[in-house]
């Protein structure tokens, strides 16, 4: 498995761009992809099912101490914060909500920054609060590549715009441009 990983966060209005991005990736996309979409415990597996029906990669909901896998989209379950424990494992927690959310994008991105440093890309999609901006900034400070969905292409632009305003996004791209970026990264890592 590649030691490079992709982390994606989103909230309101993020499912359509997420499907646009993931549907363009090949089934042999090497870096693991980890996803936090704001959800609640009642929507258990709904996000996972929607993505699985529109993506050529394997899509799984993460369990505590779950493993990173290549060619896989790992989805955070509703009601739990998702931490990157090390380059092989995740952990879940029921710590207090952040930005009224559990799972929190900031939690995922910040823990990913500490573990993967410059071996990751983080993408922040459409959403209605500022969750993810601070975590994106942490990834940027650790040398990872940071991307915000272009506010013009976002159904709800608060989340990506907050990240842009904080200087956390190295790139501001449409969903189609994000998928092209991921394809280029996959090609580069497949040559290593």
Number of domains: 1
Q: In CATH's first tier, which class applies? A: Alpha Beta
Oligomer: single chain
The assigned structural class equals alpha/beta
CATH architecture: 3-Layer(aba) Sandwich
Mean pLDDT: 92
From the alpha-carbon coordinates, what is the Rg to the nearest angstrom?
A: 14 Å
- Runs in which pLDDT lies below 50 for 5 or more consecutive residues are none
Counting DSSP H or I runs of 4 or more residues, the number of helices is: 6
Q: Give the percentage of residues in beta strands.
A: 15-25%
For the termini, the CA-CA separation is 11 Å
Number of E-state strands: 9
Largest sheet data: 7 strands, parallel
Order of helices and strands: EHEHEEEEHEHEHEH
The CATH homologous superfamily: Methylesterase CheB, C-terminal domain
CATH topology: Rossmann fold
Strand order of the largest sheet: 3-4-2-1-7-8-9
> In which range does the helix fraction lie?
25-40%
Global geometry: globular
Element layout with pairings:
Layout: E1 5-10, H1 15-22, E2 32-37, H2 46-52, E3 58-61, E4 72-75, E5 81-84, E6 90-93, H3 105-116, E7 120-124, H4 133-141, E8 145-149, H5 158-165, E9 171-173, H6 175-190
Parallel strand pairs: 1-2, 1-7, 2-4, 3-4, 7-8, 8-9
Antiparallel strand pairs: 5-6
Tell me briefly what this model is.
The protein is α/β, with parallel strands linked by helices and 192 residues long.
